[in-house]
Amino acid sequence: MELMKLEIVTPNGVIFDNDVRQVTLPGSEGEFGVLPKHATLVSLLDTGVIDIVKADGKEVAVAINSGYVKVDEEKTTCIVDGAVALSGEDTDLAKALNEAKELLKKAESSNTVIAAAVSKVEQIGKSL
């Protein structure tokens, strides 16, 4: 199984840096997935949730409010203004869900995009 490096960076530092199987990103033109050996691209990221499938198959979700992503064959780097982990081993889920909702509501995106992202965050909370 091929893996790629995923790095998520905020103004406060790196919040995720690990090998992953795939990542789904909230692009400015809609969600898109990235797998290892993906063609090189740079894209704007909109308010939403980054869905990550780690090397061990466990899923992690990170809410973001805006940023951009640079993808190449070996590494995907997300530079975001704000991010909150929604799932994973080291999160206090209830607190993270509230922080994520607040982050998304403060984002400078359309109401439809924010509502969709908040809905996704709530779905993640219900599934855990």
CATH topology assignment:
ATP Synthase, domain 1
Number of helices: 2
Q: Show unreliable segments.
A: none
What is the CATH superfamily classification? F0F1 ATP synthase delta/epsilon subunit, N-terminal
Element string (H = helix, E = strand) = EEEEEEEEEHH
Helix content: 10-25%
Report the strand count. 9
Strand % is: over 45%
Major β-sheet profile? 9 strands, mixed
Q: Provide the CATH architecture.
A: Sandwich
Distance between the first and last residues' Cα: 27 Å
Overall 3D form: globular
Tally of discrete structural domains? 1
- Category by helix and strand content: alpha+beta
Mean pLDDT reading: 82
Give the class-level CATH name.
Answer: Mainly Beta
Give me the Rg, rounded: 14 Å
Give structural notes.
This protein is α+β, with helices and mostly antiparallel strands. It has a single domain (4-127), classed as F0F1 ATP synthase delta/epsilon subunit, N-terminal (ATP Synthase, domain 1, Sandwich), CATH 2.60.15. Helix content is 24%, strand content 46%. Strands 1, 2, 3, 4, 5, 6, 7, 8 and 9 form a nine-stranded mixed sheet that branches. Helix 1 runs antiparallel to helix 2. The radius of gyration is 14 Å and the shape is globular.
